[in-house]
Design a protein that fits this description.
CATH superfamily of the largest domain in chain B: Aldehyde oxidase/xanthine dehydrogenase, molybdopterin binding domain
Number of strands of chain B: 29
Structural class of chain A: alpha+beta
CATH topology of the largest domain in chain B: Aldehyde Oxidoreductase, domain 4
Strand order of the largest sheet of chain A: 4-5-10-6-7
Distance between the termini of chain A: 53 Å
Strand order of the largest sheet of chain B: 3-5-1-12-9-10-11
Number of strands of chain A: 14
Bound molecules: flavin-adenine dinucleotide
Radius of gyration of chain A: 19 Å
CATH topology of the largest domain in chain A: Uridine Diphospho-n-acetylenolpyruvylglucosamine Reductase, domain 3
Number of domains of chain A: 3
Structural class of chain B: alpha+beta
Shape of chain A: globular
Largest interface: A-B, 25 and 31 residues
Strand content of chain B: 15-25%
Largest sheet of chain B: 7 strands, mixed
Order of helices and strands of chain A: EHEHEEEHHHHHHEEHEEEEEEEHHH
Low-confidence stretches of chain B: none
Oligomer: heterodimer
Strand content of chain A: 25-35%
Largest sheet of chain A: 5 strands, antiparallel
Number of domains of chain B: 3
């Protein structure tokens, strides 16, 4: 469990990092953030970059800022910083709830929000948050900056819309409209494990009826999935347990065959998606006004 | 000279023990917590090389060709070995059952994923790992066998062709007229169970530095070795060396739980050292090597059990059929896990007759190893589920059902049908205390209330025996020979009265050095600080087995007390000479040798020691002037097994009752432990803090086995649990607060009345947790018979139960 030989660079600025990546051939260089996913892959020799570009020390990528009504979060902000941020707790309760479900304090001390987004693990919490919150991901490349919407960023299992020489620099999370109820739930084998299945839900109540419902499930497909069919079933209806049950069932019917592994069969994952959606809707409704 | 080892605290030469029985601070801890204790990976020897092992990616494959030239050419590589070197320089591993061993590197074919195929010694581990990537191996994949029932079928692929079969052992033990008991029973209950592979996971994996001296033909192995003397004998056999040319130096290690096997890697590193001209070669097993190819796996079991029960709830007979998949070879001694249940086959109950139908099979999985508890934990899981099945059918409360069947306090010593003798116990008292601690009646009330709200609560009440102080004799039924397991200690008092105790084992975590210090301090009336423990290599140490089988605490107490007794006798002679009286008139009390009935006529231990070493003119003629003695303790009154495997094997029988409350999420199948209470009785508690530590750790391990841990394989015998993402150990978040009380029923046979307690709760916890799970599931008319009770399994059971028509 020792990595294959690689060169290491710790650029002093984001611009320098982009240049280094642009100078390297395709698949030659890899960005190192908190290393919580990359280091095991290096040690198992599943990742064999010739060059590691360590951006974890870039202060210019480590911030949590108010931006309009939302938050702009630098890609190298650690999960621990997000967990402890009063701003996040107050303004982004769903993001906060998701953060404390990621690994353990030791992992959150090093792991970054950018690293999690870029890793795009289908069972990870942050991509689900990004999708549920309609976040935007800001990317710097040789041709300058571009902004990618969450729904376009996560492509499939461990794959994003990032080009090889691009660096994710910021995650922009819009504000939850006033009165929005939210829920973030998952089933994991142990606390701190990647989810077997999870659901992020937001909704508002308008004259006693559900509105703007967003339902995202994760751990059940090749990436976090927003499920319109279930959302549409809920919007415009009174928030009853019967409705949430129907929405859960609908969701479990329309999602593609989930993966099967040691911890869960496809059938079990599908049913968890149902249960978590149902519970998530009920919880979000109870928080909505 | 025969010595009598005190079996009671009152027999000690102290008016009141100051140290024994108290929660003293562990003498091991300051060095451990400040990082000063030296572990094997800290050790750097001159000219040392590092080993990396190329392992088979196939579960079963013929090796047609290996090309190592590129690896040999890589700068920094000093030696490469393959099966050819193993054939030339070593023998197949010693195994149980006998004759199921192979060489440490695959010679003709690979028999499991992770089996060594070649290895490299290089100037760093990085270079060594680079080099093994340059070795090309031509494999011809063969059909693999991953299931014991498939393995037993005619025409199954054979793991070791020369054996002609995959059946390693098939034997039925019958104790009493079992057929008669089942024919006469009012009720017979039967069920099948599956215990999936679990195993030990010490914080530190195995590591060794091997040094083959080509001139002296001498092999030195330093390592994180649990039982140095046994490990040494294994190397003697593997390399065909005279036993005094193998020296094992054991280092402090970060736990074992049976997982410090490491023999394959050690033997590979030995071959590399020999090929590299005698340079020391370090092999540190990494976690993935450990999980897939180390001493990590045990207890891959398929059970069928039946119990015979009278209408009044008395269990009269037990039948257990076990098929255990041992894996590719017998080298890990996993088979002995299936022999140990003989030491406590019928648990804490008076079940009069029993039968054990035992089959061990080979497969293309990793060879099994020992694991904390050695084998009874799955057996008790089965027995306790059967007790609950019967109790439920007879509509008797599970606690009451156990009470009816307990061996009573006045029945000890008690011989169980499978031949072992239990020394003592107060099972009802233990049960009562556990129930009281848990507030059992209140828990039942909560359960009923929860059910009305649609919540599913379950309460498990389980009891098991922890056989303590193992003997090899019972393991002979699976091919390990011997009677008695010696443990020695040399106690020396120096010229200033300071005490050194030389032993043959090193730190593993259970606090034996503290225990030795406590005993010496009370025996000779010194401070614990005046005692130092010196672990010795196998060439210098007194005979020793070391930790294992809930044994060392008791055995080392016996050894140290024996040595103390011998010193006392010698010192009494010296004192009598000085005091001009007979030795019979001299007694040792509170650190002084004194003339009985003559106040003031006394000498301290230090004064006597000083006299022995510095005033030969004052000593009785012919006396050995060393204030030093060695005693080698072994359990008294042991004998080989009879034709049905019966013998007195384990010296002590600790007992416990655990009460567990769980809640099951009926939609997700998740099991949460809401309350965990236990009462245990392991006789005299020499250091209560140590006992509690062992108990806590063992409960956690048991929870892991019941709910989380599993070494899974696919149908081609590919391991699926290769990292801690798949092999799930309980973390602090998964462990409830463990509430504990104790009952103390001293052993009449063991030194100071202490019973083995190191493996502890592992015997009871999986059973208790599963009893709780099944108590909850019974409310839905279903039952979990497979561990771990992972959420997806529980979910499936609930779903199937919901689909069943009502009342069916
Ligand atoms: C024990 C343990 C438990 C864990 N549990 C969870 C969990 O429950 N949920 C969960 O979501 N995660 C979990 N993780 C993973 C953890 O959250 C990682 O931190 C995260 O996946 C990656 O973040 P990182 O900063 O460590 O990135 P790294 O590991 O450094 O990088 C990950 C990948 O992203 C790329 N990358 C990193 N930063 C950028 C960037 N700015 N631009 C472009 N590409 C980039 C890297 O090149 C690499 O491919 C766990 C990890 C461990 C070790």
């Amino acid at each position: 469990m020792k990595p294959a030989r690689f060169d290491y660079a710790a650029p002093g600025s984001l611009a320098e990092a982009v240049t280094l990546l642009a100078q390297s051939g395709e698949d030659e260089a890899k960005i190192l953030a908190g290393g919580q996913s990359l280091m095991p892959l290096l040690n198992m020799r599943l990742a064999r970059p010739q060059l590691l570009v360590d951006v974890s020390g870039l202060a210019e990528l480590d911030y949590i800022r108010e931006q309009g009504a939302g938050l702009a979060i630098g890609a190298m902000t650690t999960k621990r910083a997000l967990e402890q941020s009063e701003l996040v707790k107050r303004r982004q309760p769903l993001l906060h709830a998701a953060t404390v479900l990621i690994g353990h304090p030791q992992i959150r001390n090093r792991g970054t929000i950018g690293g999690s987004m870029a890793q795009a693990d289908p069972a990870a919490e942050y991509p689900a948050v990004a999708l549920a919150m309609d976040a935007e991901l800001v990317v710097q490349g040789p041709d300058g900056e571009r902004c990618i919407k969450a729904e376009d960023f996560f492509v499939t299992y461990l794959t994003t819309a990032l080009e090889p020489a691009e660096i994710l620099s910021e995650v922009r999370v819009p504000e939850l409209p006033a009165g929005t109820g939210w829920s973030f739930r998952e089933v994991a084998r142990r606390h701190g494990d990647f989810a077997v299945a999870g659901a992020a839900v937001t909704l508002r109540l308008e004259a006693g009826r559900c509105a703007d419902t967003r339902i995202v499930v994760f751990g059940v497909g090749d990436r976090a999935l927003r499920v319109d069919e279930a959302e549409q079933l809920v919007d415009g209806e009174a928030p009853t347990s019967g409705l949430f049950e129907r929405a859960g069932t609908k969701l479990s019917e329309v999602i593609e065959e989930p993966l099967s592994d040691l911890h869960a069969s496809a059938d079990y994952r599908r049913d968890l998606a149902r249960v978590l959606t149902q519970r998530g809707l009920a919880e979000a409704a109870s928080r909505a006004s | 000279m025969a010595v009598e080892i005190p079996t009671e605290l009152e027999d000690l030469p102290t008016s009141k023990p100051h140290w024994i029985g108290r929660e003293v601070k562990r003498v091991e801890d300051p060095s451990l917590v400040t990082g000063r204790t030296e572990f094997i990976d800290d050790v750097v020897l001159p000219r040392m090389l590092h080993c990396a092992i190329l392992r088979s990616p196939f579960a079963h494959a013929r090796i047609s060709k290996i090309d190592t030239r590129e690896a040999e050419a890589l700068p920094g590589v000093l030696a490469v070995v393959t099966g050819e070197d193993a054939l030339r320089w070593s023998y197949p591993a010693v195994t149980a059952p006998e004759g199921w061993g192979t060489h440490c590197i695959a010679t003709d074919k690979a028999r499991y994923v992770g089996e060594p195929v070649a290895a490299v010694a290089a100037t760093s581990r990085y270079v060594a790992e680079d080099a093994i990537e340059l070795i090309t191996v031509d494999y011809e994949p063969l059909q693999a066998v991953a299931d014991p029932f498939e393995a037993m079928k005619e025409g199954s692929p054979l793991v070791i062709e020369e054996k002609g079969s995959n059946v390693m052992l098939q034997r039925t033990f019958t104790w009493g007229d079992v057929d008669e008991a089942f024919a006469a029973a009012d009720h017979v209950f039967s069920e099948k169970f599956r215990w999936n592979r679990v195993g030990a996971n010490p914080t530190e994996t195995f590591g060794a530095i091997c040094e083959w001296d080509p001139m002296d033909l001498n092999l030195t192995v330093r390592g994180s070795i649990q039982s140095a003397s046994n490990f040494g004998l294994g190397r003697v056999a593997t390399f065909g060396l005279p036993s005094n040319r193998v020296n094992i130096i054991s280092y402090a290690h970060g736990g074992s739980f049976g997982g410090k096997g490491g023999t394959r890697g050690t033997d590979v590193a030995c071959l590399l050292s020999r090929k590299a001209g005698g340079r020391p070669v370090k092999w540190i097993e990494d976690r993935m090597e450990y999980l897939t190819a180390g001493g990590s796996q045990a207890w891959d079991r398929h059970y069928e059990a039946s119990i015979a029960v009278r209408a009044d709830g008395v269990v009269t007979g037990l039948r257990v059929k076990l098929v255990n998949d041992i894996g590719a070879t017998g080298e890990g001694f996993g088979a002995i896990n299936t022999a140990k249940p003989l030491a406590a086959f019928t648990g804490p109950y008076t079940i009069a007759v029993a039968q054990y139908d035992l089959t061990l099979t080979a497969s293309n999985k990793l060879p099994e190893s020992p694991c904390r508890g050695m084998g009874p934990p799955p057996h008790f899981f089965v027995l306790e589920q059967m007790m609950d099945i019967a109790a439920r059918a007879l509509d008797v409360d599970p606690a009451e059902f156990r009470r009816r069947n307990f061996i009573r306090a006045d029945q000890f010593p008690y011989t169980i049908p499978s031949g072992n003798e239990y020394d003592s116990g107060s099972y009802e008292e233990v049960l009562d205390k556990a129930l009281e601690l848990a507030g059992y009646a209140e828990l039942r009330r909560q359960q009923a209330e929860a059910l009305e709200q649609g919540r599913l609560l379950g309460i498990g009440v389980a009891s098991a025996i922890e056989p303590g102080v193992f003997d090899l004799n019972v393991y002979s039924v699976v091919g390990m020979q011997g009677t008695g397991v010696p443990e020695g200690a040399t106690v020396s008092i120096d010229i200033l009265g300071m005490v050194t105790v030389r032993v043959g084992f090193t730190l593993e975590g259970q606090g034996q050095y503290t225990l030795v210090s406590q005993i010496i301090a009370d025996y000779f009336g010194v401070e614990m600080d005046s005692v130092r423990i010196a672990p010795l290599d196998t060439r210098s140490a007194p005979p020793s087995f070391g930790p294992g089988g809930s044994r060392l605490g008791v055995a080392i107490t016996g050894a140290v007390l024996g040595a103390c007794e011998r010193i006392r006798e010698k010192m009494a002679i010296v004192t009598a000479g000085l005091m001009q009286t007979e030795p019979a008139n001299i007694e040792l009390m509170d650190g002084r040798f004194r003339v009985k009935g003559v106040p003031g006529a006394e000498m301290t231990v230090a004064e006597v020691a000083g006299t022995m070493l510095a005033r030969s003119d004052l000593l009785p003629p012919g006396i050995d002037p060393r204030p030093e003695a060695t005693h080698v303790w072994t359990a008294p009154g042991r004998a080989p097994v009879d034709e049905e495997g019966r013998t007195k094997s384990y010296l002590t029988a600790a007992q416990a009752v655990h009460v567990v409350l769980v809640e099951i999420d009926r939609e997700t199948g998740q099991v949460e432990i809401l309350k965990y209470c236990l009462c245990d009785d392991c006789g005299t508690r020499l250091n209560p803090a140590t006992v509690e530590g062992q108990t806590d750790g063992s409960v956690v391990q048991g929870i892991g086995a019941a709910l989380l841990e599993e070494y899974a394989y696919d149908d081609e015998a590919q391991p699926l649990s290769t990292t801690f993402m798949e092999y799930l150990l309980p973390t602090i978040n998964d462990v409830p607060l463990i509430e504990k009380v104790a009952v103390v029923t001293p052993s009449p046979f063991a030194p100071l009345g202490a019973k083995g307690c190191g493996e502890g709760a592992m015997h009871t916890t999986p059973a208790a947790v599963m009893c709780a799970v099944n108590d909850a599931l019974a409310q839905l008319g279903t039952r979990a018979t497979e561990v771990p009770a992972a959420p997806h399994r529980v979910w499936k059971l609930i779903r199937e139960a919901n689909e069943k028509p009502q009342g069916a």
